[in-house]
Automatic annotation (TrEMBL), chain A:
InterPro entries per UniProt: Exosome_comp_Rrp42_subfam, PNPase/RNase_PH_dom_sf, Ribosomal_Su5_D2-typ_SF
GO cellular component: cytoplasmic exosome (RNase complex); nuclear exosome (RNase complex); nucleolus
MF (Gene Ontology): mRNA 3'-UTR AU-rich region binding
Protein name: Ribosomal RNA-processing protein 42
Family note: Belongs to the RNase PH family.
Compartment(s): Cytoplasm; Nucleus, Nucleolus
This protein's UniProt keywords: Cytoplasm, Exosome
An individual GO BP term: U1 snRNA 3'-end processing
UniProtKB/TrEMBL annotation, chain B:
One Gene Ontology CC term in the entry: nucleolus
Highest rank taxon of the organism: Eukaryota
Exoribonuclease phosphorolytic domain ranges (all copies): 23-156
Record protein name field: Exoribonuclease phosphorolytic domain-containing protein
Length: 355, 265
C-alpha cells in the first residue's frame, strides 16, 4: 500500500480533471502576467528551509525542505582509491609533468592525472523504484554529468586548486584519488530540482581530510578533522562581505527546472504546473558569469503528430507538436543571462550558512 | 584494534566513547518534522539518527483479502537504511537488505499488537523509517522514533513503547561467578560495542492500569513488548542485561515524554 502510494507520488501525476487542467493552463498562459495557483510571480521560487552538515557520518550533507513537507537529504562520502591505469598510459604518464598533465585535460590524458568522471558517483533512491530502474539512473546520471562537466568554468576563474574542475580536485597524486559518492535516500516525494539544490549545498559543505604526505607518496592524512579542507575551496569570507565577489571561486552547478506555458516562462514549477507545461527544461548554469550551459536536457511536450481531434474549450488535452525555438531560447536566456535567475539562485544559496 | 571495549574497559571502567556502564548516549528528538505526513519524528541517539513518518490511518487497499478486511488496522513498516548511514559506502542491488527487513518485521509485529488497532477497522497505518546515520542500537532508536511519530499522528496506544539496548563488557561465554564478578553490564551500545560484545534489545511499555486499584499503584509497572538478541551469552548473565535494559527504557521514556510535552507546550 505504502509503496504503491509513494510510487504514484513519485511519478508526478497530479489528480486533476481535464477541466481543472484546462483552467490551470489558461491562467498560466495569460499573456505577460501568468497567474499561478499559489500566487507566485513567474520567476519566484517556493520558500525553502535549508541546513547543512546534518549527518555526522558523512563528509558533507545537506537538507532542503519546502514548507509543505517535501524534502531532500543528500549525503556525500569520500574515500581514497587507487588509480587504475593501463600499462601503456602509465608509462607516458610517468614521463609527463604533473602540472602539465592537469592542463592537458581533454587530450589523450583524460584517463590519467586529470581525473575521471567515474570518480564521482551519484545514487538517487526513489520510492517505488529499484536502484537500477530507468528513472533513478537517468536522474542521477543527469546530475552527475553536470557536476563532472563543470570543469570549463574552473580555470577561467583561476582557482588554483580547482584547475580541472571537480575531477581535478579529486586527484591526490598519480596513483591515488578520491572517490566521491553522493547519496540521496529514499524519502517520499522529492522533486528533482530540490535534489539538485541539496546536492549543491552538500558538496559545498563537503570536507576532505588534510593531506600530510607530499608528491607521489602513499596518501597520509591529518587526523584532525578541524584541519580538514573544503572540497570546494572558498576565498576568505571577510573579503566577500565587503565586495560583491562570490566567496567561492568555483561552485558545483545547480539544475533548475523551467517550464514554458504558452508564451510564458515559469520557474520552479510545482507538480500541477509541470503537468500542463508545453515544455520542461532542466538547465544547469555552471558559473553565471561565464555563461556556459553545461547540460541542457529538454523534455519537450508530448511530440505526437496532431491528430484529427478538435480542441474543446474548457477541456484540457496534452499539447501536440513541439515548442518554438524562440521560446526555448528565451527560457535559456532568462536563466543564464546577466542578472538572470541562475545568478539569483546561486546568490540565494550562498546565503545558506555552511559551517 | 587497540581501542577495544573488552580489553580497556576492565582497566578504566570507561567505555570507548567515555561513558560509564549505565550512561545513555545523548538523545535528541523532535516531533512534527514533516508536515506532509500524519505524524513524523526525528530522533538521534548519539550518532544514530533516524527520521520516521507515519501515514494514516487511511483506507486499506481494496480487494486485499487478508487482515485488512478484518476489524483491525494493519500496520505497515518500511525501513530504509541510507547509503551513507554506515562507515563504508554501501552498494545494494536494489530493494532492501537483511538488516532493514529484520528491523521492519520487528517493528511491524511490535506496533501491530501495541497500538489500539481495533479503533480503525479496514484501515492501514503505514510507517516509513529512514536511517540517516547508523551507529548501533538501530532497532531501539527506530522503536523510539516510531513511537514519537505515532504519538504525533494521534494514534491511540496504551503507553509509550521505548526501546533500549544493553550488553556485557566481555564475551560472557562462561557461567557467571558471583564471587568475583568482573563483567559489567553496559547500557545503550554503540556500533563498535555492538559488533564486539553480546547485546540485546528490549522495549517496554507501561502496563495499562486496570481494575479499581489502578489509582493507588505508585510504582510504574513495566511490560516487556520486544526482546531480541542476536548474539551469544551465557544464560546466567541474561537477567542482569535485561534489568539494565529495562532500566534504560524507563530513562528513555522520561526523555520521550519530555519531547512530547515540550513540543505541545
Amino acid at each position: 500500500m505504502s509503496s504503491q502510494r509513494q510510487a504514484s507520488s513519485a511519478s508526478q501525476v497530479p489528480h486533476l480533471s481535464p477541466a481543472e487542467l484546462s483552467y490551470l493552463y489558461t491562467s498560466l498562459s495569460l499573456p505577460k502576467n501568468p497567474i499561478r495557483p499559489d500566487g507566485r510571480s513567474p520567476t519566484q521560487f517556493r520558500p525553502l528551509s535549508a541546513e547543512t552538515t546534518i549527518l555526522p557520518g558523512t563528509n558533507g550533507s545537506a537538507r532542503i525542505g519546502f514548507a509543505d513537507g517535501t524534502q531532500a537529504i543528500v549525503g556525500v562520502k569520500a574515500e581514497v582509491e587507487k588509480t587504475v591505469l593501463a600499462a601503456d598510459t602509465l608509462d607516458s604518464r610517468s614521463l609527463a609533468q604533473h602540472g602539465d598533465a592537469l592542463n592537458r585535460e581533454g587530450e589523450e590524458g583524460s584517463a590519467a592525472v586529470s581525473g575521471q568522471g567515474e570518480w564521482v558517483q551519484m545514487s538517487i533512491e526513489i520510492p517505488g523504484f529499484r536502484d537500477d530502474d530507468a528513472l533513478p539512473v537517468f536522474l542521477s546520471e543527469m546530475m552527475r554529468e553536470s557536476l563532472v562537466g563543470s570543469v570549463a568554468g574552473g580555470d577561467v576563474d583561476g582557482a588554483k586548486e580547482m584547475a580541472g574542475g571537480l575531477k581535478g580536485r579529486l586527484v591526490i597524486n598519480k596513483r591515488w584519488h578520491w572517490r566521491l559518492s553522493c547519496f540521496s535516500p529514499n524519502l517520499s516525494h522529492t522533486p528533482s530540482p530540490l535534489l539538485s539544490l541539496t546536492t549543491h549545498l552538500a558538496l559545498l559543505s563537503t570536507k576532505l581530510p588534510k593531506l600530510k604526505s607530499t608528491g607521489e607518496e602513499d596518501p597520509f592524512f591529518d587526523d584532525d578533522w578541524a584541519a580538514a579542507e573544503y572540497l570546494y575551496p572558498r576565498s576568505n569570507t571577510s573579503k566577500s562581505s565587503l565586495s560583491a565577489a562570490p566567496s567561492y571561486p568555483v561552485r558545483p552547478p545547480v539544475t533548475l527546472l523551467v517550464i514554458a506555458v504558452g508564451e510564458n516562462v515559469i520557474f520552479d514549477p510545482n507538480r500541477e504546473e509541470i503537468a500542463v507545461a508545453d515544455a520542461v527544461l532542466a538547465i544547469s548554469p555552471g558559473i553565471p558569469n561565464s555563461e556556459n550551459v553545461n547540460m541542457l536536457g529538454a523534455t519537450a511536450g508530448p511530440g505526437e503528430e496532431s491528430g484529427g481531434q478538435e480542441e474543446v474549450e474548457g477541456v484540457w488535452r496534452p499539447r501536440r507538436g513541439g515548442v518554438k525555438r524562440s521560446v526555448i531560447a528565451r527560457m535559456v536566456k532568462t536563466v543564464l543571462g546577466k542578472g538572470g535567475v541562475g545568478e539569483e539562485v546561486l546568490e540565494g544559496l550562498e546565503g545558506v550558512e555552511v559551517q | 584494534m587497540p581501542l577495544d571495549t573488552s580489553t580497556t574497559y576492565p582497566l578504566t571502567r570507561l567505555r570507548l566513547d567515555g561513558r560509564r556502564w549505565n550512561e545513555l548516549r545523548l538523545l535528541q528528538a523532535q516531533i512534527s518534522t514533516n508536515p506532509a505526513s500524519s505524524g513524523s519524528s526525528y530522533l538521534s541517539m548519539g550518532n544514530t539518527s533516524i527520521m520516521c513518518s507515519v501515514h494514516g490511518p487511511a483506507e486499506g487497499r481494496r480487494g486485499d483479502g487478508g487482515p485488512a478486511g478484518s476489524g483491525h488496522a494493519v500496520v505497515e513498516v518500511d525501513v530504509n537504511v541510507a547509503g551513507f548511514a554506515g562507515v563504508d559506502r554501501k552498494r545494494r542491488a536494489g530493494g532492501s537488505d537483511r538488516q532493514s527487513s529484520r528491523i521492519a518485521t520487528t517493528l511491524r509485529s511490535a506496533f501491530q499488537s501495541h497500538l489500539h488497532t481495533y479503533l480503525y477497522p479496514h484501515s492501514t497505518i503505514s510507517i516509513h523509517v529512514s536511517v540517516l546515520s547508523a551507529d548501533g542500537s538501530l532497532l531501539a532508536a527506530a522503536i523510539n522514533a516510531c513511537t514519537l511519530a505515532l504519538v504525533d499522528a494521534g494514534i491511540p496506544m496504551p503507553g509509550l513503547l521505548c526501546g533500549c539496548t544493553s550488553g556485557m563488557s566481555g564475551s560472557a561465554s562462561t557461567p557467571r561467578d558471583p564471587r568475583h564478578d568482573e563483567l559489567d553490564p553496559l547500557l545503550d551500545l554503540s556500533l563498535p560495542e555492538e559488533q564486539e560484545l553480546p547485546s540485546l534489545t528490549v522495549a517496554t511499555t507501561t502496563a495499562v492500569p486496570v481494575g479499581e486499584n489502578n489509582m493507588d499503584e505508585d510504582e510504574e509497572a513495566m511490560k516487556v513488548c520486544v526482546l531480541t538478541m542476536e548474539s551469544k551469552v551465557h544464560a546466567t548473565y541474561l537477567e542482569t542485561m535485561l534489568a539494565v535494559g529495562i532500566d534504560g527504557c524507563s530513562q528513555i521514556r522520561e526523555l520521550l515524554e519530555g519531547v512530547i510535552k515540550g513540543s505541545r507546550g
